[in-house]
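Q: Predict the bound structure with zinc ion.
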Amino acid sequence: MLNFDYSIPTKVFFGKDKISVLPKQIKKYGTKVLLVYGGGSIKKNGLYDDIVKGLNANSIDFWELSGVEPNPRITTVRKGVEICRKNKIDLVLAAGGGSSIDCSKAIAAAYYYEGDAWDIVKDPSKISKVLPIATVLTLAATGSEMDTFAVITDMDINEKLGTGHPDMVPRFSILDPTYTFSVPQYQTASGTADIMSHTFEAYFSSIKEAFLQDRMAEAILKTCINYGKTAMEDPKNYEARSNLMWASSLAINGLLSFGKDSNWVVHPMEHELSAYYDITHGVGLSILTPHWMKYILDDSTVDKFVEFGVNVWDIEKGPDKYAIANAAIAKTREYFVSLGIPTKLSEVGIDESNLEEMAKKSVRYGKIGSLKPIDHNDVLNIFKSAL
Ligand code: NZQ
Ligand code: ZN
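A: Predicted complex:
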């Protein structure tokens, strides 16, 4: 196991009616809040009213930034920074999924930066100070409620980039699974696939002796497999929604990756698809994942796939390692199909025209992947096989 510094500072308030802690927690940071949310789902499911009631009853002033796009845009971040500066905001409160949270994080980080907000997305080293951030999560997916990253898009130049800073981690996050009851089937499926992909990024690592982290990863994968479909078919199933919600946070908050090397592979590929075609993140991941798995399967990786097949998919142990590995990959693909997610890039409007450019950009910082690093040609082959 590699050395690591454990730090997961976000205070989590988990469970039904936990929204009641919001005013008191906000007041630790001040009384002026920017409330950031998306296209209106929080107005339909009652969260907006719950927040506003709490803020008004506790003399907390708030301004609103609504309409944050899935795949949040830099233009929206800029608007948020302006509101914060004009009104001397004390805390940025995101109410929504990963997009509203990421937008809030970028606003909070750009607030203290004198230049354009896109600079701190392109170059995280420009971030020196960050406004306090808090979240009320409504979609189990990205884990942004408990991590230090934000992913922001500039559609004009087809760039979707991740940025991050230790102070971009939310100070507190309210995780009430009942706010996810209204998540539609497609987003539930996509979110589940995203949680699984974060887990894969940590699990398929070259560090072999992190036994404990790998067992925790398998538990998260089993949780997604066990509850993803239930949440789709029975959206108000609290057991399913609560397990998925906690899996979302634990998959990417560091717990699975401390002590391991971290060089993500399917995410950099997917971010290019979203940057060019504005597709749903989890859908892109689940299309690419089985193709990537198949592509990297060889003598150097087969043992890891056997571990995955036996421990996650309950495939019986046997002498033929490749049979187990291939069965595990097939089961992964079948699971995504059972969630109703498309299996081909062409189904989400992607054709050959930008593959070369997207492949180049996927490896802009060098080879990607830990268990078996891949280069530009490999990415292109994976894209082509997924067409
Ligand atoms: O905009 P509203 O009206 O809220 O509707 C949203 C949106 O249409 C809807 N939704 C969310 N909660 C709902 C709901 N609808 C009904 N009821 C609810 N309770 O779902 C749609 C998608 O929301 P979004 O926030 O975009 O989804 P997600 O949480 O999957 O976030 C995706 C973004 O996060 C980035 C992705 O790349 C993408 O830009 N990621 C962020 C990461 C991070 N910060 O660590 C890591 C991830 O790997 C990922 O890259
Ligand atoms: Zn993701």
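A: The beta strands are 11-14, 32-37, 61-65, 91-96, 133-137, 149-154, 159-164, 172-175.
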